[in-house]
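> @MW can you paste both from yesterday?
MW: sure, first one:
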Amino acid sequence: MIIGVLALAVVVLLVDKVWLSDGERGSVPATAAVDKSVAVLPFADLSQGQDQEWFADGLAEEILNALARTPDLLISARTSTFAYKGTDKDIPTIATELGVAHVLEGSVRRAGERIRVTAQLIRAADGFHLWSQNYDRNATDIIEIQEDLAIQIANALETTMDPESLKDMLRVGTTSVEAYQAYIHGAALRAESLLENDPPTMIEAYGYFEEAREADPEFSHAHGAAAQYWVSQMSLTSFHFDTSELMPLSEMLQMFYERNGIAIATAKNDTDRLLLRAERAEVDLRLREAMRLYREYLDARPNDLIAWEAYLENATKASDLAAIREALAALREAGLKRPEAASYFMDYAFQFLEPNDGADYGLAAIEKWPLANIMYQTHRNLLFAQRVDKAGEVMRSFAQRYGRPHPLMVARQRCAEGNTERVREILTEVWGNEVTVNSGNPQWLVLKMLGEEERAVEVLRNFEAQQVPFLMASWLNYTYFDPTPFPALRSILARENVERPPATTLPYACTPK
């Protein structure tokens, strides 16, 4: 997955990467949280009109993003922390569930051009306030407030960086209050859209990123966020919003190139520039270069789990087993303390490790974090290990916890049980018989389960016809995908000197009983 486009939703479960709110090999022992780790909770909106939620959410997200750049701080992902928005859980419980030692909480109160921001850093073990601060300032001071908050928190957690280097790293990247406020408004809406599966809100978020770009043409983060919007439109196996009626995919690609290019040119430091260049190489399917750039970036920011996943994804497309093992090892270790890392690990473990490895790891992870993404990935790993009965238990637990079954989990389970008729019914009921931009990947997956290879190929030919190879590239993440029928992918693999092994078979494919 491209950096910055996390396809992790709270209400609607996504294909193969799923998020919802609320030792021995493969195990996830109950370890103590890393001391320099923090979760940034959504800030509360205490404004009289209760109309500044976007501002509170955007500010919290940008503080989180700033802290995430600090090499020796472990920051819980936004998709994890924002799941606790409006929760009545106490700080120790939240910290335990997220595997962090500290929690930052805060509030925003805005009246006209005055703004009050309150923040407090709490040590979860004993509830001690390591640091707290109140800002009562003009709204035009918001950039200074955000930068100071990030610096004070990092200093309170005693990072290894010297103060001047830290300050330079945590700068917002714009001096324009207008641009910054548009940007954090877009960031808040983007977070809401990903959590609520709300395409119109994502489009609205993009509009704010465009406003930020216009207000400050030197604001690299705004250009980068706008570029990533267009990546989301071209990523059929991730969080896709259908704008096919608005413009052809080739034009979407050009929109990405333009904004990404400006982001690279205006980046304030070499590390940010590395990330942006890696994203461009990934969209170009320059797989080797993308891997190299992501790896260089990770040398500077080794705790960026999304970058580790991007590195792993490109390594998978390139069939680079050494890089795959390196990334899996990093994510396995991080997954002892962070649920998102455990999910990323299991998203690939079933294809490259001994099947029970990912399955046992997932079962242990569920004990710590009974979240949808963990349960979904564990279910798939169990089926690859052919532990069908245990997989059925996880599937039922998922449905009970979230009030509904996940259709792909049910289809996989019924296939493993030999109930081919039910799988066909699910295919028709959920995704229909017509191929659409949002159903292509699930249709392909279910047809593969059913052994209908010709129909599965025809599903993907609809997307190959768009003549944007990146559109098809996500299927290279599956070892059971055969690129032979698709000339554009064959050409790219030849250019990248990828020797892809023969496609594997699904161990849970339907066999009538």
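MW: second:
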Amino acid sequence: MSPRCHFLGNLRLYRCLAALAGVCAAIASPAVSQTVQPILLVDVDHRTAMSLNGDWHSIVDPYGTGLYSFHGQKRSDGFFMNEHSVVGGPLVEYDFAKSPALRVPGDWNTQRDSLFYYEGLLWYQKDFEYRPKPHTRSFLHVGAANYRATVWVNAKEICEHEGGFTQFDCEITAAVRTGTNSVVIAVDNTRHADGVPTTQTDWWNYGGLTRDVSVIEVPEQFIDEYDLHLNRSDRSEIDGWVHVEGARPGTTVRVTIPEAKIDSTATVGADGRAQFKLRAENLTLWSPNHPKLYRLELMAAADSLVDDIGFRTIEVRGTTILLNGQPVFLRGICIHAEAPYRTGRANSDADVEALFGWVRELGVNYVRLAHYPHDERMTRAADKLGILVWSEIPVYWAVEFEKAEVLVKAQKQLREMIRRDRNKASVILWSVANETPNTPARTEFLKTLVASARELDATRLITAALLVRGEGNTKIIDDPLGRYLDVLGTNEYIGWYEKTPESADQTTWKVAYDKPLIMSEFGGEAKAGLHGKAEQRWTEEYQASIYEHQLKMLNRIPQLRGLSPWILMDFRAPRRLLPGMQDNFNRKGLVSDQGQKKQAFYVLQRAYQSGSIGKAD
């Protein structure tokens, strides 16, 4: 199937576009959108790119005037502007040249005080010089646009995308010309009940073009996806395939890994894929202790692509997680994609360096990237540093599980996450949900997502962060979703949302499934620099006490195979209102947003570095 078939149908996408301006209810019989849907190029950060980062003109449009007439009818393509980005027709209010700039990549909330709480439609515009090449296809690459986006190039509508944390690529070959070109992107971060995530989250709804934007050139036939992984039963064999978009059956594909002395060819079949089985004797397997990466070279027709790839296996045997056939205990921490120091969405090398600097200082070998796919810089860094990764989609709390169209959106985000990172050795866990209610509709919804994840990638483990129930001093994990997961994730907040830190000493655990368990969240809030008695909430001492008692309790759970406390760094969250303590920040971080380490940081660090927490088998 062509990658284009992996996206939502035209009717659904039209309705998404209608919702972009918040006028869905006003349109009784929407027409079908003819916009071409984007594809997803992989390994984009290894392709030659023309960056469009920098200042973009911006127009704030809370009523969607640029998209809709006052009768709620969608304006015809290009009506709101001509090819020179000057407004045509009666919309005299629009003029990008006279409009202020916003930095891309970047969320709009932290760049302009007036947009701090803004949720709605905002227009971006940028001119760029370009010279199309013969026999070449051009794509506009968007690392992320939260939450819905529509793209125009030279007044021609190019594509639409829904989902705030996955990248997409819009073909602009037929729209660009030699000389000055104009790109306009309408981005709307309005929360919707039928969205993924839905209206209720516990992180800031940063809007805008939050990750890199660039132009990518590829040949007419090009490598758009591949999967090369170590065989679980024979770690001297690399299995997989390379997909070549536009290639005819019989096209030759070459895979070379020079350091491993691998050089092999295969031909493309009717599905566009060339299948490979490669003998790989004496490979150095990727692991946290030795994150070995090999240079991979792919060639097909006129296209060539390189990657840095590690080879390892991950599997479960009983209650044990096996990395390269050996038991492993996951000493972890959760991370939000919040930028240290400046706040806003994390999207730069400096952000990654700061976050992983604290991660390494803690002594972890695993991170949970919550609650959505993070910038690709994070998984690249994890590959290089030897940090195992839990990656998840934002099926968070109570999405509308009974609606088939919401499932389609979740599946799309799952595909985009897996497609981008399937060749990252660091990623060992795909998570399909966080803290969802135990209902039949929810279980069927997530069971379908689990099956989709296995179909897309049978080489990794599937998990979800489940809620627990209590009976007296016993915590019980018996969520019916657990029977479909490879690894159980569980969130609990003894000492913060219930009881006291000391109550963990009397807590026992009952797990209904003979599977590995990761305590995927626990912790409590503290304001950095606030000190007092260990019984005083919001102090560093109280947070440290939670960790001390939690770690002793967790060590008593026989099948515990990992933990990722909540959370590495304080982050903005509009639900967190307490003046003087929270001030729109979730303060459960071990580090403040300004880099101040709290006492709990050192409690966890000592446990990890001493090896006093957890058993691998």
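> thanks! Helices lie at 10-20, 349-362, 376-385, 404-421, 440-456, 540-554, 599-610.
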